């Protein structure tokens, strides 16, 4: 992954990095097909917030998800997890973050659904260090909404959910939200974790 050094530099300087060619197009297209087939088969489940006994469906988010390590997922999911693990190793070399593992899930947002402003780290668990979002939506039209909105001290920055766009950011520092869209959209959300 030749873009890793640029990603590491951007994370070091800004706490966020964006890449357009981090993963091969054939893999992204296979992931899209896998996720859509799983959705059609009713395998994705309504997402919740929190974890353990604090896990609840609160209306804060409107997506349906399935973890990529679920046996129902196809070969593309396993290939993507392998690519994420390779990225984890490279980011450890560049940034010395002590990343130990990565977790990821498909996320499908129907038209009109979003996810309110939040951070990706649990209050009682600091394992998540880096968040990653990879979009799987070809030919996303201008004006359809659905952006990932990142919040910074000098204002918000929106990123359209177009196929191949990948965003990485510091899980405990960058507040973000998913804006509603006029059509459904598909992504992968991942977290690089350290030992706790």
Protein architecture, described:
The protein is an alpha+beta fold and 196 residues long. The protein has a single domain (4-47, 60-194), classed as q2cbj1_9rhob like domain (Jelly Rolls, Sandwich). The chain contains three helices and eleven strands. The strands form two sheets. It has a seven-stranded antiparallel beta sheet with strand order 1-9-6-11-4-3-2. A hairpin with a 2-residue loop joins strand 7 (148-152) and strand 8. The longest helix has 21 residues, at 75-95. The two termini are 28 Å apart.
In short:
By secondary structure, the protein is α+β, with helices and mostly antiparallel strands. It has helices at residues 4-14, 25-40, 75-95, and strands at residues 16-19, 45-46, 64-67, 99-109, 115-118, 128-135, 148-152, 155-159, 166-170, 175-178, 185-194. It has one domain (4-47, 60-194): q2cbj1_9rhob like domain (Jelly Rolls, Sandwich), CATH 2.60.120.
Q: Could you name the CATH class?
A: Mainly Beta
In total, the number of domains comes to: 1
Q: How much helical structure, as a percent, in the residues?
A: 10-25%
- Helix count, per DSSP? 3
Major sheet, described briefly? 7 strands, antiparallel
Give the strand order of the largest sheet, numbering strands 1, 2, ... along the chain: 1-9-6-11-4-3-2
Order of helices and strands: HEHEEHEEEEEEEE
Q: Averaging pLDDT over every residue, what do you get?
A: 90
Q: Low-confidence segments, ≥5 residues, pLDDT <50?
A: none
> What fraction of the residues are assigned to beta strands by DSSP?
25-35%
Kindly report how far apart the N and C termini lie.
28 Å
Number of strands: 11
Gyration radius over CA: 16 Å
Tell the overall outline.
globular
> What is the CATH architecture annotation?
Sandwich
Name the CATH superfamily assignment: q2cbj1_9rhob like domain
Looking at the structure, the CATH topology is Jelly Rolls
